[in-house]
Fold these 2 entries.
Entry 1:
Amino acid sequence: MSVKLTNRQVGEVTVIDAAGRITLGEGSSTFRDSVKEMVNAGQKKILLNLGDVSYIDSSGIGELVSGFTTVSNAGGSLKLLNLTKRIQDLLQITKLYTVFEVFDDEAKALASF
């Protein structure tokens, strides 16, 4: 199973609820294409909810970084919400924990934009 992305608008912020697996192939390209479409449409405040992501591989982590770069280069910001223990560990091992703003509380995350 690959990743399923559901977008919802909360004020000016687009929340992407991701569920499933973000892995090499379909899951990561789905995420990349989704972020590019949003930026091209002028949506530059993106909150990625990873609470229902069961698995992410190095390719998936790469896509998070790529999405972050795409949004940042367009003058926006991409923040992470509800990281699983595995994703937290991966971000700490890869030293990416310092790159992303990470939240456990959606209201606080939305207020940070």
Note: The beta strands are 4-10, 13-22, 45-56, 77-81, 102-103.
Entry 2:
Amino acid sequence: MEIFEIIGYSSALVIGISLGLIGGGGSILAVPVLAYLFSINEKTATAYSLFIVGSSALIGGLKNHFKGLVDWRTALVFGLPAIIGVSVVRHYIVPTLPDVLFSVADVEFTRRMGMFGLFAILMIPAALSMLKEQVVKETKETVRYNYLMIIIEGFFIGMITGMVGAGGGFLIIPALVILANVEMKIAVATSLIIIAFKSLIGFFIGDALKIDIDWPFLTVFTSISLVGIFIGSYIGSFIDGKKLKKGFGYFIFVMAIFIFYMEFFIK
């Protein structure tokens, strides 16, 4: 086993530990780990990421379900259009993207640059959401369910997930709080269920039917991440997750800069 593979599998464990420790963010590292440590191309890396993200979110979502924190009505209304969005992108759009999207003078803007560039851009608000202090209101005014906006937002976020292979929890949670008027802890728990189903269904509909999946590799990588979740949950009993969350937010920000550098400045 090469040194990069050892680091890659170790990173799979770190991804799981971060998810179990701080409740999110770790899965956003799946794409750069797959791309740079295992040299997997952009289409396959984002596809594998969907499976890893979905499996990890499913574990977290079920744990919250048994605690009574999941709003299944919201998950259904938001989740169905999100599933449609990610499935459409993975099944119809990503496979048709050309290797070179466009050229400016002698500079070619490739599909890889487009997908990873968008991914890096989305890592920035994800990092900022981890650095920002969450203000939880004790009481909220009762408002009507904004079904139309929830459906539109769900479809849009599903499309983003399909393009970059990230769960998009930093987009889903504010949408649930604002549009569905749910409490923050309910929004966090419900977002995991939404992420799980849209990622896994998008993967199986859009990718498993289109590309050859290295199931032994994907199973091992995902299993290591899932083990990390339980390790992180245990460690969380002894460590302040809020401080670690800020540190991880800074790390994601640095990773976004690294991806930009690798894709746009290194030839």
Note: Residues 138 and 154 are 26 Å apart (CA to CA).
